[in-house]
Amino acid sequence: MNSFSKVVLLVDDSPTVRRMLEWALRSSSLRTLQAVDGVHALEILKVQSVDLAIVDLNMPRMDGIELVRSIRADKALKNLPVILLTTEGREEDREAAIEAGVNLFLSKPAAPALLRRKAEFFLGIPGPAPGDIREATS
Amino acid sequence: MDRETALRELNHGSPDLQRRAARVLGRWGDDQVLGALIAALQSPHRGIREAATDTLLEIGDARTVRFLVPLLKSSVPAVRNAARLLLQRLSKAAPEILVELSRDPDVRMRIFAADIMTESGDHEMAEPLLALLDDADENVRDAAVVGLGRLGASEAVDRLEHVASAGSPWSKFSAIDALSQIAAPEAVRALVRLLSRGSEDLMEPIIEALGRQGSPEAVGPLLEKLRQSPTLASVIVPALVLMPAAEVMGRTPEAVRPALAEAVARRLEGNGIAPEVTVGGLDLLGMLGVRVGGDLFFRLLASSARTIQLAAVRTVARLRLRETVPLLRQLQVQGDPVLLRDVQAALDLMTQSGKESL
Which of B26, B27, B263, B313 is the most buried (most CB within 10 A)? Predict the structure, then answer.
């Protein structure tokens, strides 16, 4: 596989979190794009091919759940894997996220190595076993 | 429109009437009106939500803040976000309510409190954020760390350095990032200390933080790190080139300059480099006065980015790279007005230097 052959979109209104995610994924030789909220993410997704989105829940203009709904409603984007990464661990948020169509609901703080393994799993980069994914959702 | 009509229309009118009523109600601003406007923030119609938001901002007193706080517990993320954004803008109206929120038994409320204090941009919030560094919950502590960085709180440097040394990987990263945002010499010194004794897995964020700080004080320690760990060149070189080239040059011992120039050139030959790093790298190469780089200069002189082309023209002139003269002549013929003056100056310099060497 070529370096930078996979593209991950990081969607979070916190620049610190975006930098953290970029760093956590760096060793996977992925290319990352950054968006500050759901509206910005959709603008990027219209013009850039993306293989995975890691999305925050609470963001201005358009939150993570609304963004996932918009992605799933779009013919061209509906199969894009989405990891929702949030400090909100409420059952109702988790249910809303799953109903909206997220592939994985991950609570912060997630260890960088765990995050990288999950991202690699969705990108089809060899590494984690499927059981690994369940562990993060429980 | 009188108050009663406006309240009735806000509750039962068409979307257009509701929007108009939400704006008109700003004339009164009593508790009943505030309650109705808060309810309108939860409307499915964007126009009504926006009108209610504008009116609440206009009223903007401590009562408004108190009315908004319960919305942070809404089960609808969009409502929570609307409340958070409003509270950020109104934080100065009632800072004591935010401090109260930062002691809420609900972890999520304490995170909201830290986030709102952060985005308020109000340095007065540094003190309650410092108190949140002792919170039992890691996400609250992390939100406070982020906030202290964003507010540029130099009084938090010692605590942040401690978190960067002893927290979880997530917290360590946030603390390093926070230190990079505090424009104070003590923050640079803390990062330099972390550079020498921080954990290896966080070396890249520490170096990048020093690059963002851009302090010449970090040049020596970064060069020493480059000597110890050449594999970190891909991070150290971009950090160095973000600093003023003259400062880096002045602090680089003469014996080390060829190695640094080689490292810069190798980095510039790589992929995915930000334009400001390329420009900084070229300026530094020019200052170092060491000839390096094979085809590097030919490639950068032909770059589609004018800032990179200009930096390349300046550098080949400083280094007197006469082999680039044919390409400079080509640029001269193309007559790009942005480049023309610098290209001419470079050609004059090199022609003169050629004559001198003859």
Answer: B313
